[in-house]
Amino acid sequence: MQNVEMNFDGLVGPTHNYAGLSYGNVASFSNAKGVSQPKAAAKQGLLKMKTLHDLGLAQGVLAPQARPDLSVLKRLGFSGSDAQILNQAAKSAPAILAACYSASSMWTANAATVSPSADTPDGRVHFTPANLTNKFHRSIEPVVTGNILRATFADQQHFVHHNHLPENDHFGDEGAANHTRFCADYGQSGVELFVYGKTAFDISAPAPKKFPARQTLEASQAVARLHGLSTDKTVFALQNPDVIDQGVFHNDVISVGNRNVLFYHEQAFANTEHVLNEIQSKMGATHMHFICVPTAAVSILDAVKSYLFNTQIVSINATDMAIIAPMECHDTPAVKRYLDQLITLGTPIKEVRYIDVKQSMQNGGGPACLRLRVALTPLELAAVNPETKMSEAKFARLNTWVDKHYRDEIVAADLADIYLLNESYAALDELTQILNLGSIYPFQQV
Ligand SMILES: NCCC[C@H](NC(=O)CCC(=O)O)C(=O)O
């Protein structure tokens, strides 16, 4: 058997809603207070996982967080029965209630940074959950993320789980959305690229002016240290601050890589030539394909609207790759034209597949946001919790589970409804059995 790169998609939780929580994320802001469709959202996500499974790729599923997060509401002074807590919060602090209800853990590209065993000194796969300090609703994810990752990758002989970084903006860490790994083959040692938006301990360094930089250099360096990565095999690159100000809140909105391919927008990085030279020189004999999309072909506005770079580039055989793109790429004329051309250019990318993840897209999460990549050797793959692996049977089982528990629609007023809380916890309690995760949620531990 071969080494693989397995995608772990976040299952969309039962409380998926549009709350406008992410300043700097254009879609989240423009769809604020819209009507969400949790059942459709979860099914779109499952179908995406099944599509990749059917392409012959290793595909897994990560459980969502338990929402609403009552422990946070209690910490903030709301008290009484569960229904009283929801009522008080809905009346006096609806924005905080919405944050505690967010299904944002579906975007598992922000769950953690993962370094495969080929890159680490102890020959194990290292995981560091992202602290997501920049957005309150996301900053409440990392502890349970750690529980989910431990229950999915339990074998300590193969997997190491670090704590998330200190919870402060100086160490703002958004996980794999700002991390790309290049390699000749998934099982060989690779070069890990960390992209950051600002240097926290140097206020004179370049930084965006309008929207926040969510990832700091210091956070990226700390993760690389925790994982024991060699300096000869790591590259730290400053994201172009101007594009952050145009809605590129993570690097995976402006560049994406796979094996020896980096697909990026002309304006993605601050010092592009230097970054590319460093990647190529650290890759040694392995030739990199740098595929640059010029502004003249695709504007930043169209890149953000269509999520051209939030696509997944996957290897479909030893040499060829496919690009998994959201339908919005198909529907944005300049982007569709570019993709039609891309597959004729003689790069490893030979095919485009369009998928519908509209429910997630409307909150600023495309195909790449929905997945966490974990490169695994055959032995490590065998050590992954088998119930978290996608299959025909798991796909059918999870669809039935969604049909049983999920609402068709949620609007802001529903968040005060105690029945929604009960439905959500009942669904997740059953899910932990389906995926054999044990008691990962605080509501299961009391
Ligand atoms: N990687 C994609 C992440 C998208 C995510 N959106 C959100 O949280 C929007 C939630 C809302 O507005 O209801 C974020 O910005 O972190």
From TrEMBL:
Swiss-Prot/TrEMBL keywords: Arginine metabolism, Hydrolase
Catalytic activity: N(2)-succinyl-L-arginine + 2 H2O + 2 H(+) = N(2)-succinyl-L-ornithine + 2 NH4(+) + CO2
Catalytic site positions: E174, H250, C369
GO molecular function: N-succinylarginine dihydrolase activity
Pathway(s) it belongs to: Amino-acid degradation; L-arginine degradation via AST pathway; L-glutamate and succinate from L-arginine: step 2/5
Alphabetized SUPFAM superfamilies for the sequence: Pentein (SSF55909)
Pfam family, one: AstB
GO biological process terms on file: L-arginine catabolic process to L-glutamate; L-arginine catabolic process to succinate
Class in the EC hierarchy, top level: hydrolase
Chain residues that bind substrate: 19-28, 110, 137-138, 214, 252, 363
Homology family: Belongs to the succinylarginine dihydrolase family.
Subunit structure: Homodimer.
Function: Catalyzes the hydrolysis of N(2)-succinylarginine into N(2)-succinylornithine, ammonia and CO(2).
Protein name, per record: N-succinylarginine dihydrolase
Organism in which the protein naturally occurs: Opacimonas viscosa
